[in-house]
Write a structure and sequence with these properties.
Structural class: mainly alpha
Length: 60
């Protein structure tokens, strides 16, 4: 049978990709919560692509 992997948000907050995105937030002057929100709406496989799109959005 297929294994269903539950994506654990609590453990994932220290994921290297999320750390990298948060570092970019600092460089870009964005709120780190934006990276976290994007992370929570995606999976590790889709996050970086979603993040690349998200960080190109103009700041409000």
């Amino acid at each position: 049978g297929k294994e269903i992997v539950i994506w654990d948000k609590v453990l994932s907050k220290d994921h290297p990709l999320l750390q990298k995105a948060k570092a970019e937030c600092i460089e870009l002057g964005l709120n780190k919560a934006i990276a976290t929100r994007t992370w929570n709406q995606s999976s590790p496989e889709t996050f970086w692509q979603a993040w690349e799109i998200r960080k190109k959005k103009p700041k409000k």
